[in-house]
Amino acid sequence: MSIDTNLDPWALREDFPILARQVHEQPLIYLDNAATTQKPQPVIEALNHYYRDYNANIHRGLHQLAELATEAYEGARVKLQHYIHAASHKEMIFVRGTTEAINLVAQTWGRTHLRAGDEVLVSMMEHHANIVPWQLLRDQLGIQIKVIPVNALGELDLDAYQQMFTPQTRLVAVTHVSNALGTINPVREMTAIAHDFNVPILVDGAQAVPHLQVDVQALDCDFYAFSGHKMYGPTGIGILYAKQALLEQMPPWQGGGEMIKQVSFAQTTYADLPHRFEAGTPAIAQAIGLGVAADYLTHVGLENIQAWEHELLTYATEQMSAIEGLRIIGQAPNKAGVISFVMQDVHAQDLGLLLDQLGIAIRTGHHCAMPVLHHFGVNATARASFALYNTFEEIDALVAGIHKVRQMMS
Ligand code: PMP
Description:
- There is one protein chain.
- The protein is of the alpha/beta class.
- It has two domains: 9-30 and 301-409, Aspartate Aminotransferase, domain 1, CATH 3.90.1150.10; 44-299, Aspartate Aminotransferase, domain 2 (3-Layer(aba) Sandwich).
- Helix content is 39%, strand content 17%.
- It contains 14 helices and 17 strands.
- Strands 4-10-9-8-7-5-6 form a seven-stranded mixed β-sheet, sandwiched between helices. Strands 13-14-17-16 form a four-stranded antiparallel β-sheet, covered by helices on one side. The protein has a two-stranded antiparallel sheet with strand order 1-2.
- The two termini are 33 Å apart.
- The chain binds 4'-deoxy-4'-aminopyridoxal-5'-phosphate.
- The site of 4'-deoxy-4'-aminopyridoxal-5'-phosphate has 12 residues, from α4.
- It catalyses: (sulfur carrier)-H + L-cysteine = (sulfur carrier)-SH + L-alanine.
């Protein structure tokens, strides 16, 4: 097997203390990276360092610790700005994660820009986080949700997409990479099409930022949402990127401290961007940790990560396709390192439980993407998803584990 990548997963594994642990007395084989990734030592250390050495609330304090904490928090924002190549740090709003980012857009931009009868286009393969916020708005405002279809391989039908625009279309909301199928969607092309109709586009980047070099200016998307914990950072932190002109037109999301200039009972004025959208004390340590995760990924190199994960995906697809009775759901040529599959006569949940006994962590269930699973005629799949620290040996162990389970069940 020729491996054309500059990434050494064995060396990188040393950075992830958890990978040395055992599960059920077996070495941990962690293949649930689409749910959340493990954390490298520099991220863990950044959290410790903050709490140990300079814990303080940010922005308002004049004392040294407050200054250090503010500097680190705002520094993290700039690191993330560079990570996705945004034009300004003002376009980077810290939120809890992708889910909160999309709800923010629905409840601020959506509530002020949409009316009954307006149409939002989402795709068949969306995570529930990019479906339910629009359904809440449908209940609140009477908007319509139209669904971009997928083909048998699990790719979006771009001809159908183009034909779905009407004078009522106000927003496209689409995932960059599907967590359930692995498909990488052509979001740049989809953005260009949306813009031809003067329609803005929101991209759910939760599954893209750990695997691909994302450049929001090159994509030209209007909103881009992602979570820190899927890109080797802490939970409870993520980013909503939005073009400054759009943020300027949006009313605040939550009200409280940090997001104001002046408050009186008669009238309140709001802070400048980006703080207008960050009410209350934010997740300071988590933001700092996420900045360090972005540094880590940049240091390893997104091209190297993408190349390595592609090797893993190709190898695993070959090995797993050869297993009798195994069907891979989602076979787009342009895929990230996700293999969703079902097995004849073995329920996904049983497979997950039995593999766990062998130390192998995969995910089973609907992956918060029920519509697309139903479209493929299944209620649940088993899903193995790869990260930069996974190896061919781990895939061999997964394949051997699946064979073992099959034997046990037959
Ligand atoms: N979108 C996609 C494509 C996802 O995979 C996920 C997480 N599974 C989310 C949104 C939601 O992310 P979070 O739970 O971190 O808000």
